[in-house]
Amino acid sequence: MDDEVKNLSNLQIDALSEIGNVGAGNAATSLSIMINRRVEMSVPRVSIIPITDIWQVVGSEEEVVCGIFLRALGQAPGSILFMLPLKTAHQMVDLLMGVPPETNQELGEIGHSALKELGNILSGTYLNALSLFTGLEFIPSVPDLAIDMSASILGSLVLPMAEVGDYTLVIETVFSENHKALVGHFMMFPDPGSLSIILDKLGVDQ
Question: What is the arithmetic mean of pLDDT over 111-138?
């Protein structure tokens, strides 16, 4: 697996980027319809990184974040985590609920529901894009939500349940409305053997 990841072909790298772009485009359309306002999404970076480097992506281990977690079942199962800094999660809830910025000082039940629906939309669109490029079937579970330090969420929620291997697929996701950008990270932690299946479908042998 180390050699596969280190020697990603140009085809695989392009496919990973296009998976992010297709998923973001479809998610933006779904969100715009849901809130009846135009929302744009972009994917500055899609990468496969060692699990030990995850802190370079999500920031400090002590930072309080919102994590939306679910399982992706199917032919290459894994666990999915969409992680947002807590302040960004509040801003996302304001955006999704169509209220002025900084309205939601506490997330509350409605805020939690809005963020879970965001997790549903993102997981569905990104997994559909991944399915389009690989021909594999992915079925997302119902999402859970946690608010805690990033180290706690990754350590107690994702890693044990996912039986995580050495690498994770990270899609940096930027939401934009009225020139205001909100950044989160969509991460897929493949179960043992799943990453090899995905990479093979993306052209390991080419």
Answer: 92
Query: What's the helix, strand, coil split of the chain in %, to 5?
Result: 50, 30, 25
- Listed by start position, the domains of the chain span 2-86+118-201
- Element spanning 48, H or E: strand 46-50
Q: Which three-class secondary structure state does DSSP give residue 15?
A: helix
Q: Give CA–CA dist 81/50, Å, rounded.
A: 16
Tokens representing 188 are: 């897929």
Residue pair 104/97 in contact by the 8 Å Cβ criterion = yes
32, two tokens: 């715009």
For the record, the structure tokens of 36 come out as 């009846």
Q: Which fold has domain 2-86+118-201?
A: Chemotaxis protein chec (3.40.1550)
| Residue 128: closest CA among 138, 120, 118 | 138
CA atoms lying within 13 Å on the CB side of residue 46:
19
Q: What pLDDT is recorded for position 205?
A: 45
Instruction: Classify the phi-psi angles of 163: left when phi > 0, otherwise alpha if psi is within -120 to 50, otherwise beta.
Output: left
**Based on the number of CB atoms within 10 Å of its own CB, is 192 exposed (0-12), middle (13-18) or buried (19 or more)?**
middle
DSSP designation for 84: E
Q: Which tens digit of pLDDT belongs to each residue from 15-58?
A: 888 889 999 999 999 988 888 888 899 998 888 888 777 877 77
Quickly list DSSP for 75-130: SS-EEEEEEEEHHHHHHHHHHHHT--TT--SS-HHHHHHHHHHHHHHHHHHHHHHH
Reading the block at residue 120, the tokens are 């549903």
